[in-house]
Design brief:
The chain has about 500 residues and is of the alpha/beta class. Helix content is about 40%, strand content about 20%. It starts with 10 loop residues before the first strand and ends with a strand. The structure holds NADPH dihydro-nicotinamide-adenine-dinucleotide phosphate.
């Protein structure tokens, strides 16, 4: 931990605009709470359209020089930032856990290492991306990528630093300058990153981080005429409003939205040799980060012949997950991100109950008396499994984004595929079987951007990731992400004069 990043009991977060830290222009603030204890931990600027104007102006002014710097120099700057985040990784993990309620162990093992990898990955990727050349009898063509300008990077609360860096790293590597808007619910690690951007020596205006509410500063950023492109991760309804706001000015948009991801469990993956591994895999896919990962499996489709073996084993394992203090190393399930989100999750389960669900475990808010005193006011909801719902029921169609999954039986491959594809979403799926040919066949028929076989969230950052239908537009990761922030320009030479 260094003086640059240490958080005090109640931190006053500021914006980073044009290389300077400042409160919101109107002076308004947003209170930030630790969802595990309910305590106030920080105040953040409630920024206005005026702050967005200043940030976009600074980013636009910084763009020509940043772009002209060239890929190797931009990559070096990103690597310096990655080194600083790594230096302060323990403090970043502590603060991410405090801000989100997620287990500290998860922030340490996933969120912060992945944020560091994002910065390094895109530094390497832009240097390796030499453009393409094509030659035929008539011509030689070289295609290079020219950065678009000011990129708006808007990120959600579930994986705050992980997803914020997943956006700003390719934007900066490609040569764009950035105005970032983290979620108002979890502003802390973006604020720590802002200070490290200054320490890393980014030129003024290259990275601007404006904190505030989506409906005020987020909407102003999306509508700003000098923003060239928008990369957004968040809910589908917000994505739709962003697509509408961006359309009149033809801004390029990448939208990573919600999901209702199926896990297809075939009987051969529930045989004696595989049962435990499959159960562990599904528990991880459904409940990691309290189920608040866009790729979490929220519909578990189980082949009917395996139901009586697989479902009891899954329920028994789920009941053994430890809900508790995020700071306790033995905790599996921490707090949901806020008391407000807890009410939404609880309401969705209550609605499912009214729709006739059988609740196998969980299903009611954790009794505060069962929790250690420090976290009795926290937003804790237990992992919940339910069945006996129509595939058209709300709990099988609408994203809940909490530790809640439904169980649905199926009889055949065709029925499993039909159920899996039977929502408006198309983000990801998992397929659990020992039959690799069957897995490939099923994967090719699932309408979604990623299919994991006997695994979940195993990632190679070169692979494009994103959704179909209501799960979004465009892909992040790999070259797709770098090229999103740039215009391909072809320079063509004739082989013979005409
Ligand atoms: P939201 O859509 O509510 O918010 C996402 C971001 O957009 C926040 O920074 C928010 O600010 C901002 N925002 C809200 N309204 C506007 C607006 N009108 N204009 C511009 N910006 C706006 O999502 P959540 O933060 O609640 O995140 C959860 C959602 O994210 C889930 O639906 C989940 O599936 C999805 N998600 C998708 C992923 C994917 O890769 N497909 C990955 C992770 C999450 P503020 O918070 O201040 O309102």
């Amino acid at each position: 931990m260094t003086a640059a990043t240490a958080m005090t009991a109640t931190t006053t977060i500021q914006n980073l605009i044009d290389g300077r830290f400042a409160p919101a222009s109107g002076g308004a603030i947003i209170s930030v709470y630790d969802p595990a204890t309910g305590s106030l931990i920080a105040t953040a600027p409630d920024s206005t359209a005026h702050d967005i104007d200043a940030a976009v102006d600074a980013a636009a002014a910084a763009f020509p020089a940043w772009h002209a710097l060239g890929a190797p120099a931009r990559a070096a700057q990103l690597r310096t930032l990655a080194d600083l985040v790594e230096r302060d990784a323990d403090e970043f993990a502590r603060v991410e856990s405090l801000d989100t309620g997620k287990p500290l162990a998860l922030a340490r093992s996933i969120d912060i290492p992945r944020a560091i990898s994002n910065l390094r990955f895109f530094a390497d990727a832009v240097v390796a991306d030499e453009g393409e050349t094509f030659e035929n009898a008539q011509s030689r063509s070289a295609v290079h990528h020219r950065a678009l300008g000011v990129a708006a990077c808007i990120s959600p609360w579930n994986l705050p630093l992980y997803l914020f860096t997943w956006k700003i790293a390719p934007a900066l590597a490609a040569g764009c300058t950035v105005v970032g808007k983290p979620s108002e619910v979890t502003p802390l690690t973006a604020w720590m990153l802002a200070r490290l951007c200054v320490e890393a020596g980014f030129p003024r205006g290259v990275v601007n981080i404006v904190q505030g509410r989506g409906l005020l500063s987020g909407a102003a950023l999306v509508a700003h005429p000098r923003v060239a492109c928008i990369t957004f991760t968040g809910g589908t309804a917000t994505g739709e409003s962003i697509a509408r706001a961006a359309a009149p000015s033809f801004k390029r948009t990448a939208l990573e939205l919600g999901g209702k991801n199926p896990a297809l469990v075939f009987a051969d993956a529930a045989g004696p040799a595989q049962l435990q591994a499959t159960v562990e895999g599904i528990v991880r896919a459904a409940f990691t980060n309290q189920g608040q990962v866009c790729h979490c499996a929220s519909r578990i489709l189980v082949e009917r012949s395996a139901w009586d073996v697989f479902v009891p084993a899954l329920v028994e394992r789920t009941k053994r997950l430890r809900v508790g203090d995020p700071l306790d190393a033995t905790t599996d399930i921490g707090a949901l991100v806020s008391g407000q989100h807890l009410l939404k999750v609880a309401a969705a389960v209550d609605a499912a109950r009214r729709d006739g669900a059988t609740i196998h475990c969980g299903g009611v808010r954790v009794d505060p008396a069962m929790l250690p005193e420090r976290i009795r006011a926290g937003a804790f909801y237990p992992p919940t499994l339910m069945s006996d719902l129509a595939t058209t029921a709300r709990a099988n169609q609408e994203e809940i984004f909490g530790p809640v999954a439904t169980l649905i039986p199926f009889e055949s491959d065709a029925e499993a595929i039909a159920i899996a594809n039977g929502t408006r979403y198309g983000l990801s799926a998992t397929v659990w079987t020992n039959d690799d040919a069957r897995a490939s066949r099923i994967a090719s028929q699932l309408d979604c951007g990623t299919v994991w076989i006997n695994s979940w969230m195993v990632r190679d950052l070169r692979v494009p990731i994103g959704g179909m239908h209501a799960s979004g537009l465009g892909r992040e990761g790999g070259r797709e992400a770098l090229h999103f922030f740039a215009e391909p320009v072809a320079v063509v030479r004739a082989n013979t004069s005409t």
